[in-house]
């Protein structure tokens, strides 16, 4: 099962096939609502693909993905479907439904090969294993599936630490990836983003010949904030098994929420001072380090043209931050701003959520700077103070690069931004907040 290729190991079946495949097909958020209706046997006289008529020897088989009827040859594929479809284990699918899987497998193999080549060129890293279901991002391109990120686990031979290596394919990168000057400034920007609550990057490189970016970070055993909320491990199984759709966890302990929320807010304010916003923020890209320290990661997404994978309720950074805060309190993702009415928590935290997601559609929404003045954060002390005057640590050229390319994409289509209740959200710069020190209860 291992094919030698110029000193590298190209594994044909070295990762669990089902793990990678489970993340290919649309989730319930993409419009997939449970199992499809099966075409009745009596209505299918011929295979839905090859059109060969069914006979005693050419029998009917249903595709568990689309519900169509096909012959054995046209439905001889087995994959693990998303759990919201109600299946467990590998299921039969037709050749058409299997095609996105095959395409993603090819893209994943290409990324793993690029990671291995890069590690060999560095000489200080040792390839360990693929991480096929660790936050892989998929997107639709001309009706097909492609990868924006793949992950592998590696080992720093010198420092004897385990690493998570992200291989990014920035297909919609807003700056010229072939430009040495642009790539140099991109790397310099990423290296300048040093903060106690931003996960450090150990190594960072642009592979121009492969049009990929390789990012090395230390593997954190606790995983993401989402892993902590759902009490799971980052490599314990497929994504939809770690976080089953519809499952409600218990959330974080109330006494921990203000501390973690303030850590995240401090990192967001630091990035804002550099001109970087984080519409990508969700509990999956907040990593838990030792001593219960929350750190934002994947900031490179904002400069590589990657659009937010998870669309939070509301628009803007405050809404993304509010979605994270809500999930910490409730143990599940917010589906609608009205969910805030039903959640239970400490009064100051609930007051903050209700300010971010107000009942009135025309009510002003606080900015990040406004939120920093709320009692739940002013009364919370952190062990690590953020660096002072972070703007002075970044040159004007790098700030100009951020201004030109942060949160932009070469593709014209952008995800629709929906404000609470569907109404236009007031600009944070035009709104002044005076957070109350009291409580609204609940």
Computed Rg: 24 Å
- Distance linking N and C termini: 58 Å
| Topology order in helix (H) and strand (E) letters | EEHEEEEHEEEEHEEHHHEEHHHHH
Q: Tell me the number of strands.
A: 14
User: Helix/strand-derived class?
Assistant: alpha+beta
The share of residues in helices is 25-40%
> In percent, how much strand structure appears in the residues?
15-25%
- Main β-sheet, in a few words? 6 strands, antiparallel
Rough outline: globular
* Unreliable residue stretches: 1-32, 138-145, 411-442
The count of helical stretches stands at 11
Name the average pLDDT. Answer: 79
3D structure, described in words:
The strands form five sheets. Strands 7, 8, 9, 10, 11 and 12 form a six-stranded antiparallel sheet that branches. The protein has a two-stranded antiparallel sheet with strand order 1-2. A two-stranded antiparallel sheet has the order 3-4. It has helices at residues 17-21, 95-122, 180-192, 225-230, 239-242, 257-274, 316-330, 347-356, 368-372, 375-378, 396-405, and strands spanning 2-5, 8-11, 61-62, 69-70, 77-80, 90-93, 125-130, 137-141, 144-156, 161-168, 203-207, 212-218, 286-289, 293-296. The chain contains eleven helices and 14 strands. A hairpin with a 2-residue loop joins strand 1 and strand 2. The longest helix is centred in the N-terminal third of the chain and has 28 residues, at 95-122. By secondary structure, the chain is α+β, with helices and mostly antiparallel strands. The chain is globular, with a radius of gyration of 24 Å.
């Amino acid at each position: 099962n291992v094919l030698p290729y110029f000193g590298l190991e190209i594994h044909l079946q070295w990762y669990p096939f089902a793990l990678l495949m489970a993340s290919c097909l649309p989730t319930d958020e993409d419009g997939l609502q449970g199992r499809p209706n099966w075409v009745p046997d009596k209505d299918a006289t011929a295979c839905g693909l090859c059109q060969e008529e069914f006979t005693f020897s050419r029998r009917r088989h249903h595709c568990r993905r689309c519900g169509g009827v096909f012959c054995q040859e046209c439905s001889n594929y087995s994959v693990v479907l998303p759990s919201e479809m109600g299946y467990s284990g590998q299921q039969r699918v037709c050749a058409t439904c299997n095609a996105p899987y095959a395409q993603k497998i090819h893209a994943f193999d290409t990324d793993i090969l690029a990671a291995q080549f890069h590690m060999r060129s560095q000489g200080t890293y040792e390839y360990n294993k693929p991480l096929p279901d660790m936050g892989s991002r998929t997107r639709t391109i001309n009706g097909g599936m492609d990868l924006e990120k793949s992950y592998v686990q590696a080992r720093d031979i010198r420092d004897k630490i385990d690493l998570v290596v992200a291989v990014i394919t920035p297909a919609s990168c807003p700056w010229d990836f072939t430009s040495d000057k642009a790539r140099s400034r991109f790397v310099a920007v990423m290296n300048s983003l040093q903060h106690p609550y931003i996960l450090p990057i150990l190594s960072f490189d642009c592979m121009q010949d492969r049009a990929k970016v390789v990012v090395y970070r230390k593997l954190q055993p606790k995983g993401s904030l989402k892993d902590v909320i759902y009490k799971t491990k980052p490599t314990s199984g497929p994504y939809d098994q770690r976080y089953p759709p519809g499952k409600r966890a218990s959330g974080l302990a109330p006494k921990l929420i203000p501390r973690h929320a303030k850590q995240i807010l401090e990192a967001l304010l630091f990035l804002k001072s550099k001109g970087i916003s984080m519409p990508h923020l969700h509990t999956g890209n907040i990593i838990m380090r030792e001593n219960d320290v929350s750190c934002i990661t994947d900031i490179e997404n904002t400069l590589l043209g990657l659009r937010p994978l998870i669309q939070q309720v509301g628009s803007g950074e405050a809404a993304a931050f509010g979605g994270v805060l809500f999930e910490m309190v409730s143990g599940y993702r917010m589906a609608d701003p009205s969910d805030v009415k039903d959640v239970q928590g400490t009064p100051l935290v609930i007051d903050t959520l209700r300010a971010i997601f107000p009942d009135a559609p025309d009510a002003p929404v606080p900015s990040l700077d406004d939120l920093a003045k709320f009692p739940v954060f002013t009364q919370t002390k952190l062990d690590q103070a953020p660096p002072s005057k972070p703007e002075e640590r970044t040159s004007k050229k790098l700030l100009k690069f951020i201004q030109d390319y942060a949160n932009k994409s070469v593709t014209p289509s952008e995800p629709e931004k929906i404000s609470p209740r569907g109404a236009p959200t007031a600009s944070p710069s035009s709104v002044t907040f005076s957070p109350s020190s009291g409580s609204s209860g609940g």
